[in-house]
Design a protein that fits this description.
Length: 253
């Protein structure tokens, strides 16, 4: 069994969702964990306008991600953990290349060093290097469409094969059948907050995926939606329902 997570966005994550997935991994002991990018937010070095009141210190973000990765390794001590670079991780390279060219070649500033990948026994996969296990391609992703499953469809159109990705912050599955057979594409949701301060009521879903592989390359994908701080997996409940938040739309009639 493999567990696939994406888009945690420390320190704009959902703490309850992150804890639930760690508990799930600790109990299920998967053979692989795929982190499909954007575990870090890196908002402080982005090119977008920044609210000084919310801009997190980059070191604090790195510390949070490293602490989480340490917990993840403790939860699955024998698992292969593969960490794919997302567009938010890539912000560090981009910043060094544009704002601090003289420092860009320092190995100590590579994310693999900053997050202590060697000690944690993590495999780093660069942004431009999607990888395949059996017949399923894994990547952070690059497209976001309007509706659930439509981003998965675009990634199928890009790669022409079965693909699983993050980036969209949505859960969705797309299938296509032609004379060669059936192809599937999946977007795995996010573990970030669903109420960020820079957008109102985004169409995002908390969740993750469970993938099973056979020796002949066949596989299955199960999307797991975390709804109101709980989910069910194969008859077992994880988490307890949280109170539904008040309507964010004010009535000023």
């Amino acid at each position: 069994m493999s567990v696939v997570v994406a888009d945690v966005h420390f320190n704009a994550h959902d703490p309850d969702a992150v804890k639930l997935v760690l508990r799930f991994i600790r109990e299920q002991r998967p053979g692989r964990v795929h982190i499909l990018g954007d575990a870090i937010d890196a908002q402080s070095i982005s090119r977008y306008d920044k609210d000084p009141a919310r801009t997190a210190n980059l070191q604090d973000e790195l510390d949070s991600v490293r602490d989480w990765l340490t917990e993840l390794r403790d939860a699955a001590p024998k698992a292969q953990i593969i960490y794919s670079e997302g567009n938010h991780e890539f912000r560090l390279k981009k910043y060094l290349r544009s704002e601090a060219k003289g420092l860009a070649g320092l190995r100590s500033l590579a994310l693999e060093e900053l997050l202590d990948f060697k000690r944690l026994r993590l495999h780093w996969q660069p942004q431009d290097r999607p990888y395949r296990i059996g017949h399923l391609l894994f990547t952070h992703g690059q497209y976001v469409s309007r509706w659930s499953a439509m981003s998965a469809k675009r990634h199928y159109e890009q790669y022409g094969c079965c693909v699983i990705h993050g980036h969209s912050h949505r859960l969705g599955a797309f299938y296509h059948t032609d004379v060669t057979g059936t192809i599937g594409a999946w977007e795995v949701g996010c573990l970030s907050t669903l109420n960020p301060d820079y957008v109102t009521a985004p169409d995002w879903q908390n969740g993750f995926a469970v993938v099973n592989h056979s020796n002949n390359g066949c596989f299955s994908v199960e999307l797991v939606a975390i709804i109101q701080n709980q989910f069910w997996f194969r008859g077992c409940q994880f988490g307890k329902q949280r109170a539904i938040p008040a309507n964010i739309v004010e009535d000023l009639t």
